Amino acid sequence: MSSEKLAEVFTYESLVHAVAGAMGSVTAMTVFFPLDTARLRLQVDEKRQARSTPAVLAEIIKEEGLMAPYRGWFPVICSLCCSNFVYFYCFHSLKTTWLRGQRSTPGRDLLIGIAAGVVNVLVTTPLWVVNTRLKLQGAKFRNTDIHPTHYTGIIDAFSKIVRDEGAAALWNGTFPSLLLVLNPAIQFMIYEGLKRQLRRGVHRELSSPEVFFIGAVAKAIATTVTYPLQTVQSILRFGQQRQPTERSRILSSLRSVVYLLLNRVRKNGILGLFKGLEAKLLQTVLTAALMFLLYEKIASSTFRLTLAGGVLVTWLGNLAFSAHRPTVEQCIGVNSNYGKLSECVPAEMDIPIFSLFHRT
Protein backbone atom coordinates (compact mmCIF):
# COMPACT_ATOMS: atom_id res chain seq x y z
CA MET A 1 0.00 0.00 0.00
CA SER A 2 1.40 3.39 -0.99
CA SER A 3 2.16 6.12 1.53
CA GLU A 4 -0.68 8.19 0.03
CA LYS A 5 -3.19 5.41 0.76
CA LEU A 6 -1.81 4.96 4.28
CA ALA A 7 -2.10 8.70 4.80
CA GLU A 8 -5.83 8.48 4.05
CA VAL A 9 -6.37 5.60 6.49
CA PHE A 10 -4.12 6.55 9.42
CA THR A 11 -5.11 10.13 10.20
CA TYR A 12 -5.21 12.22 13.33
CA GLU A 13 -8.91 12.93 12.80
CA SER A 14 -9.87 9.23 12.66
CA LEU A 15 -7.84 8.62 15.82
CA VAL A 16 -9.69 11.41 17.65
CA HIS A 17 -13.07 9.98 16.60
CA ALA A 18 -12.01 6.48 17.71
CA VAL A 19 -10.73 7.58 21.12
CA ALA A 20 -13.78 9.81 21.70
CA GLY A 21 -16.14 6.96 20.76
CA ALA A 22 -14.32 4.50 23.03
CA MET A 23 -14.27 6.90 26.00
CA GLY A 24 -17.91 7.85 25.55
CA SER A 25 -19.09 4.25 25.31
CA VAL A 26 -17.07 3.08 28.34
CA THR A 27 -18.43 5.89 30.52
CA ALA A 28 -22.02 5.38 29.37
CA MET A 29 -21.89 1.59 29.81
CA THR A 30 -20.49 1.94 33.33
CA VAL A 31 -23.42 4.14 34.33
CA PHE A 32 -26.07 1.78 32.94
CA PHE A 33 -24.27 -1.57 33.39
CA PRO A 34 -26.86 -3.16 35.77
CA LEU A 35 -29.51 -2.79 33.06
CA ASP A 36 -27.32 -4.80 30.69
CA THR A 37 -26.96 -7.50 33.34
CA ALA A 38 -30.76 -7.78 33.60
CA ARG A 39 -31.08 -7.92 29.81
CA LEU A 40 -28.54 -10.74 29.49
CA ARG A 41 -30.20 -12.85 32.20
CA LEU A 42 -33.59 -12.50 30.50
CA GLN A 43 -32.12 -13.54 27.14
CA VAL A 44 -30.19 -16.59 28.35
CA ASP A 45 -32.31 -17.93 31.25
CA GLU A 46 -35.64 -18.86 29.63
CA LYS A 47 -37.18 -20.20 32.86
CA ARG A 48 -36.73 -17.05 34.94
CA GLN A 49 -40.15 -15.97 36.23
CA ALA A 50 -39.40 -12.28 36.77
CA ARG A 51 -39.94 -10.44 33.50
CA SER A 52 -39.48 -6.76 34.31
CA THR A 53 -36.07 -5.13 34.65
CA PRO A 54 -36.56 -3.92 38.27
CA ALA A 55 -37.80 -7.38 39.33
CA VAL A 56 -34.83 -9.15 37.74
CA LEU A 57 -32.34 -6.76 39.34
CA ALA A 58 -34.06 -7.20 42.73
CA GLU A 59 -33.79 -11.00 42.38
CA ILE A 60 -30.12 -10.81 41.40
CA ILE A 61 -29.23 -8.56 44.35
CA LYS A 62 -31.23 -10.69 46.80
CA GLU A 63 -29.76 -14.02 45.66
CA GLU A 64 -26.23 -13.05 44.60
CA GLY A 65 -25.31 -9.90 46.50
CA LEU A 66 -25.35 -6.13 46.09
CA MET A 67 -22.51 -6.00 43.56
CA ALA A 68 -23.83 -8.87 41.42
CA PRO A 69 -25.34 -6.50 38.79
CA TYR A 70 -21.77 -5.33 38.11
CA ARG A 71 -20.36 -8.84 37.75
CA GLY A 72 -18.19 -9.02 34.63
CA TRP A 73 -17.85 -5.23 34.38
CA PHE A 74 -14.13 -5.20 33.62
CA PRO A 75 -14.10 -7.66 30.68
CA VAL A 76 -17.21 -5.99 29.23
CA ILE A 77 -15.60 -2.56 29.45
CA CYS A 78 -12.38 -3.86 27.87
CA SER A 79 -14.36 -5.46 25.03
CA LEU A 80 -16.54 -2.40 24.56
CA CYS A 81 -13.56 -0.05 24.51
CA CYS A 82 -11.77 -2.12 21.84
CA SER A 83 -14.96 -2.67 19.85
CA ASN A 84 -15.98 0.99 19.71
CA PHE A 85 -12.43 2.13 18.99
CA VAL A 86 -12.31 -0.20 15.98
CA TYR A 87 -15.82 0.73 14.81
CA PHE A 88 -15.48 4.50 15.10
CA TYR A 89 -12.02 4.44 13.52
CA CYS A 90 -13.17 2.32 10.57
CA PHE A 91 -16.40 4.30 10.11
CA HIS A 92 -14.74 7.71 9.94
CA SER A 93 -11.70 6.48 8.03
CA LEU A 94 -13.88 4.81 5.38
CA LYS A 95 -16.19 7.83 5.27
CA THR A 96 -13.29 10.23 4.69
CA THR A 97 -11.69 7.99 2.06
CA TRP A 98 -14.92 7.30 0.17
CA LEU A 99 -16.61 10.69 0.28
CA ARG A 100 -13.50 12.83 -0.32
CA GLY A 101 -15.30 16.01 0.68
CA GLN A 102 -18.65 15.10 -0.93
CA ARG A 103 -21.93 15.32 0.97
CA SER A 104 -22.93 12.04 2.60
CA THR A 105 -26.28 10.29 2.09
CA PRO A 106 -28.24 7.76 4.20
CA GLY A 107 -27.37 4.99 1.72
CA ARG A 108 -23.66 5.74 1.92
CA ASP A 109 -23.78 5.97 5.72
CA LEU A 110 -25.46 2.54 5.83
CA LEU A 111 -22.87 0.89 3.55
CA ILE A 112 -19.96 2.45 5.44
CA GLY A 113 -21.51 1.35 8.73
CA ILE A 114 -21.88 -2.23 7.48
CA ALA A 115 -18.24 -2.35 6.31
CA ALA A 116 -17.00 -0.96 9.63
CA GLY A 117 -19.20 -3.44 11.49
CA VAL A 118 -17.81 -6.45 9.62
CA VAL A 119 -14.24 -5.45 10.50
CA ASN A 120 -15.26 -4.88 14.11
CA VAL A 121 -16.99 -8.28 14.43
CA LEU A 122 -14.10 -10.27 12.99
CA VAL A 123 -11.57 -8.52 15.24
CA THR A 124 -13.43 -8.35 18.56
CA THR A 125 -15.78 -11.40 18.72
CA PRO A 126 -13.34 -13.42 20.92
CA LEU A 127 -13.42 -10.62 23.50
CA TRP A 128 -17.22 -10.65 23.57
CA VAL A 129 -17.38 -14.46 23.90
CA VAL A 130 -15.09 -14.30 26.93
CA ASN A 131 -16.90 -11.40 28.57
CA THR A 132 -20.29 -13.13 28.13
CA ARG A 133 -18.93 -16.22 29.91
CA LEU A 134 -17.42 -14.15 32.72
CA LYS A 135 -20.50 -12.01 33.17
CA LEU A 136 -22.76 -15.07 33.60
CA GLN A 137 -20.28 -16.95 35.80
CA GLY A 138 -21.71 -17.55 39.26
CA ALA A 139 -25.23 -16.57 38.22
CA LYS A 140 -28.16 -18.53 39.67
CA PHE A 141 -30.12 -19.91 36.72
CA ARG A 142 -33.64 -21.38 36.69
CA ASN A 143 -32.74 -23.41 33.59
CA THR A 144 -31.12 -26.66 34.82
CA ASP A 145 -29.66 -27.37 31.37
CA ILE A 146 -27.13 -24.58 31.87
CA HIS A 147 -23.79 -25.80 33.22
CA PRO A 148 -21.72 -23.51 35.49
CA THR A 149 -18.31 -22.29 34.34
CA HIS A 150 -15.23 -21.52 36.42
CA TYR A 151 -12.79 -18.94 35.07
CA THR A 152 -10.39 -16.88 37.16
CA GLY A 153 -10.10 -14.03 34.66
CA ILE A 154 -9.86 -12.99 31.03
CA ILE A 155 -6.64 -14.88 30.24
CA ASP A 156 -7.85 -18.02 32.02
CA ALA A 157 -11.15 -17.88 30.12
CA PHE A 158 -9.34 -17.55 26.79
CA SER A 159 -7.03 -20.49 27.51
CA LYS A 160 -9.76 -22.81 28.86
CA ILE A 161 -12.14 -22.11 25.97
CA VAL A 162 -9.37 -22.88 23.44
CA ARG A 163 -8.28 -25.98 25.38
CA ASP A 164 -11.73 -27.45 26.03
CA GLU A 165 -13.71 -26.29 22.98
CA GLY A 166 -11.14 -25.38 20.36
CA ALA A 167 -10.01 -22.00 19.04
CA ALA A 168 -13.09 -21.76 16.81
CA ALA A 169 -15.26 -21.48 19.95
CA LEU A 170 -13.86 -17.98 20.45
CA TRP A 171 -15.85 -16.98 17.37
CA ASN A 172 -19.14 -18.52 18.57
CA GLY A 173 -21.97 -16.27 17.48
CA THR A 174 -19.98 -14.72 14.64
CA PHE A 175 -22.68 -15.44 12.05
CA PRO A 176 -25.50 -13.63 13.90
CA SER A 177 -22.96 -10.95 14.82
CA LEU A 178 -22.26 -10.40 11.13
CA LEU A 179 -25.99 -10.12 10.54
CA LEU A 180 -26.14 -7.70 13.45
CA VAL A 181 -23.73 -5.26 11.83
CA LEU A 182 -27.03 -3.85 10.58
CA ASN A 183 -27.66 -2.63 14.13
CA PRO A 184 -24.86 -0.03 14.35
CA ALA A 185 -25.14 0.61 10.61
CA ILE A 186 -28.84 1.50 10.94
CA GLN A 187 -28.06 3.43 14.11
CA PHE A 188 -25.37 5.56 12.45
CA MET A 189 -27.45 6.03 9.30
CA ILE A 190 -30.38 7.41 11.33
CA TYR A 191 -28.10 9.42 13.62
CA GLU A 192 -26.20 11.08 10.76
CA GLY A 193 -29.45 11.66 8.86
CA LEU A 194 -31.12 13.32 11.84
CA LYS A 195 -28.04 15.49 12.34
CA ARG A 196 -28.28 16.71 8.76
CA GLN A 197 -31.99 17.42 9.18
CA LEU A 198 -31.48 19.38 12.38
CA ARG A 199 -28.78 21.49 10.79
CA ARG A 200 -30.81 22.08 7.62
CA GLY A 201 -27.71 23.04 5.69
CA VAL A 202 -26.31 25.31 8.43
CA HIS A 203 -22.91 24.16 9.72
CA ARG A 204 -23.36 24.40 13.49
CA GLU A 205 -22.65 22.39 16.59
CA LEU A 206 -25.73 20.60 17.90
CA SER A 207 -26.88 21.25 21.45
CA SER A 208 -26.55 18.56 24.12
CA PRO A 209 -30.32 17.83 24.25
CA GLU A 210 -30.39 17.49 20.45
CA VAL A 211 -27.49 15.01 20.42
CA PHE A 212 -28.99 13.01 23.32
CA PHE A 213 -32.40 12.83 21.63
CA ILE A 214 -31.27 11.75 18.16
CA GLY A 215 -28.83 9.25 19.67
CA ALA A 216 -31.68 7.69 21.66
CA VAL A 217 -34.06 7.58 18.68
CA ALA A 218 -31.45 6.02 16.38
CA LYS A 219 -30.56 3.29 18.88
CA ALA A 220 -34.18 2.50 19.77
CA ILE A 221 -35.09 1.84 16.13
CA ALA A 222 -31.94 -0.20 15.40
CA THR A 223 -32.33 -2.32 18.55
CA THR A 224 -36.00 -3.16 18.04
CA VAL A 225 -35.42 -4.26 14.44
CA THR A 226 -32.49 -6.56 15.26
CA TYR A 227 -33.37 -7.79 18.77
CA PRO A 228 -34.27 -11.44 17.93
CA LEU A 229 -30.82 -11.90 16.41
CA GLN A 230 -29.24 -10.32 19.49
CA THR A 231 -30.95 -12.96 21.64
CA VAL A 232 -29.53 -15.75 19.45
CA GLN A 233 -26.12 -14.10 19.57
CA SER A 234 -26.11 -14.09 23.40
CA ILE A 235 -27.12 -17.78 23.55
CA LEU A 236 -24.41 -18.80 21.08
CA ARG A 237 -21.73 -16.81 22.89
CA PHE A 238 -22.70 -18.42 26.20
CA GLY A 239 -21.87 -21.77 24.57
CA GLN A 240 -24.55 -23.90 26.24
CA GLN A 241 -26.30 -25.00 23.04
CA ARG A 242 -25.45 -28.30 21.31
CA GLN A 243 -22.68 -27.90 18.79
CA PRO A 244 -23.70 -28.57 15.17
CA THR A 245 -21.97 -31.37 13.27
CA GLU A 246 -22.11 -30.06 9.70
CA ARG A 247 -18.78 -29.66 7.95
CA SER A 248 -19.66 -26.27 6.54
CA ARG A 249 -19.37 -23.75 9.38
CA ILE A 250 -21.46 -21.20 7.49
CA LEU A 251 -24.24 -23.74 6.93
CA SER A 252 -24.07 -24.98 10.51
CA SER A 253 -24.13 -21.42 11.84
CA LEU A 254 -27.18 -20.65 9.72
CA ARG A 255 -28.89 -23.81 10.95
CA SER A 256 -28.06 -22.88 14.56
CA VAL A 257 -29.57 -19.42 14.16
CA VAL A 258 -32.74 -20.77 12.53
CA TYR A 259 -33.03 -23.58 15.11
CA LEU A 260 -32.67 -21.22 18.08
CA LEU A 261 -35.18 -18.76 16.64
CA LEU A 262 -37.76 -21.49 15.96
CA ASN A 263 -37.12 -23.14 19.33
CA ARG A 264 -37.67 -19.84 21.14
CA VAL A 265 -40.93 -19.29 19.23
CA ARG A 266 -42.10 -22.86 19.96
CA LYS A 267 -41.50 -22.48 23.70
CA ASN A 268 -42.57 -18.89 24.28
CA GLY A 269 -44.40 -17.74 21.15
CA ILE A 270 -43.41 -14.85 18.90
CA LEU A 271 -43.03 -12.59 21.92
CA GLY A 272 -40.36 -14.97 23.20
CA LEU A 273 -38.04 -13.56 20.53
CA PHE A 274 -38.34 -10.20 22.27
CA LYS A 275 -37.88 -11.39 25.85
CA GLY A 276 -35.67 -8.88 27.61
CA LEU A 277 -36.38 -6.15 25.02
CA GLU A 278 -37.62 -3.80 27.75
CA ALA A 279 -34.34 -4.13 29.63
CA LYS A 280 -32.37 -3.91 26.41
CA LEU A 281 -34.15 -0.76 25.23
CA LEU A 282 -33.88 0.86 28.65
CA GLN A 283 -30.17 0.08 28.81
CA THR A 284 -29.08 0.48 25.21
CA VAL A 285 -31.09 3.62 24.41
CA LEU A 286 -29.85 5.47 27.48
CA THR A 287 -26.32 4.17 26.98
CA ALA A 288 -26.24 5.11 23.29
CA ALA A 289 -27.71 8.56 23.92
CA LEU A 290 -25.14 9.31 26.63
CA MET A 291 -22.36 7.77 24.53
CA PHE A 292 -23.13 9.96 21.50
CA LEU A 293 -23.34 13.04 23.72
CA LEU A 294 -19.95 12.32 25.32
CA TYR A 295 -18.44 11.34 21.96
CA GLU A 296 -19.50 14.61 20.30
CA LYS A 297 -18.25 16.71 23.21
CA ILE A 298 -14.92 14.88 23.55
CA ALA A 299 -14.22 15.03 19.81
CA SER A 300 -15.28 18.68 19.61
CA SER A 301 -13.11 19.68 22.57
CA THR A 302 -10.14 17.76 21.18
CA PHE A 303 -10.36 19.43 17.77
CA ARG A 304 -10.69 22.83 19.44
CA LEU A 305 -7.63 22.18 21.62
CA THR A 306 -5.73 20.99 18.55
CA LEU A 307 -6.61 24.18 16.73
CA ALA A 308 -5.67 26.33 19.73
CA GLY A 309 -2.39 24.44 20.14
CA GLY A 310 -1.59 24.79 16.45
CA VAL A 311 -2.25 28.52 16.55
CA LEU A 312 -0.05 28.88 19.64
CA VAL A 313 2.80 26.92 18.05
CA THR A 314 2.54 29.02 14.91
CA TRP A 315 2.50 32.25 16.93
CA LEU A 316 5.58 31.22 18.92
CA GLY A 317 7.28 30.20 15.69
CA ASN A 318 6.57 33.63 14.23
CA LEU A 319 8.16 35.29 17.22
CA ALA A 320 11.23 33.06 17.16
CA PHE A 321 11.87 32.78 13.45
CA SER A 322 9.76 35.58 11.93
CA ALA A 323 8.01 32.89 9.91
CA HIS A 324 4.94 33.66 7.81
CA ARG A 325 1.79 32.97 9.83
CA PRO A 326 -0.51 30.53 7.98
CA THR A 327 -3.86 31.78 6.80
CA VAL A 328 -7.16 29.92 6.76
CA GLU A 329 -6.47 28.83 3.19
CA GLN A 330 -3.28 27.10 4.36
CA CYS A 331 -5.14 24.91 6.81
CA ILE A 332 -6.59 21.46 6.25
CA GLY A 333 -10.31 20.93 6.82
CA VAL A 334 -11.01 17.98 9.07
CA ASN A 335 -14.48 17.22 7.67
CA SER A 336 -15.94 17.37 11.15
CA ASN A 337 -19.29 18.36 12.57
CA TYR A 338 -18.20 20.75 15.26
CA GLY A 339 -18.68 24.23 13.82
CA LYS A 340 -16.46 26.84 12.23
CA LEU A 341 -13.83 26.78 14.97
CA SER A 342 -12.91 23.20 14.10
CA GLU A 343 -13.15 23.50 10.34
CA CYS A 344 -9.51 24.46 10.05
CA VAL A 345 -6.66 22.66 11.81
CA PRO A 346 -3.10 23.81 10.98
CA ALA A 347 -1.71 21.60 8.24
CA GLU A 348 1.21 20.43 10.33
CA MET A 349 -1.21 19.09 12.96
CA ASP A 350 -3.32 16.96 10.60
CA ILE A 351 -0.64 14.49 9.55
CA PRO A 352 -0.87 10.72 9.11
CA ILE A 353 -0.47 8.84 12.40
CA PHE A 354 2.29 6.65 11.01
CA SER A 355 4.27 9.76 10.10
CA LEU A 356 4.53 10.64 13.79
CA PHE A 357 6.79 7.64 14.22
CA HIS A 358 8.67 7.87 10.91
CA ARG A 359 9.77 11.47 10.73
CA THR A 360 12.98 12.03 8.76
UniProtKB/TrEMBL annotation:
Gene Ontology terms: cellular component: peroxisomal membrane
Solcar repeat placement: 12-97, 104-197, 206-301
GO molecular function term, any single one: ATP transmembrane transporter activity
Pfam families: Mito_carr (PF00153)
Record has Heme as a keyword: no
Keyword flag Secreted: no
Main localization of the protein described in the UniProt heading: membrane
Family the entry assigns: Belongs to the mitochondrial carrier (TC 2.A.29) family.
PANTHER family reported for this sequence: PEROXISOMAL MEMBRANE PROTEIN PMP34, PEROXISOMAL MEMBRANE PROTEIN PMP34-RELATED
Name of the molecule in the record: Peroxisomal membrane protein PMP34
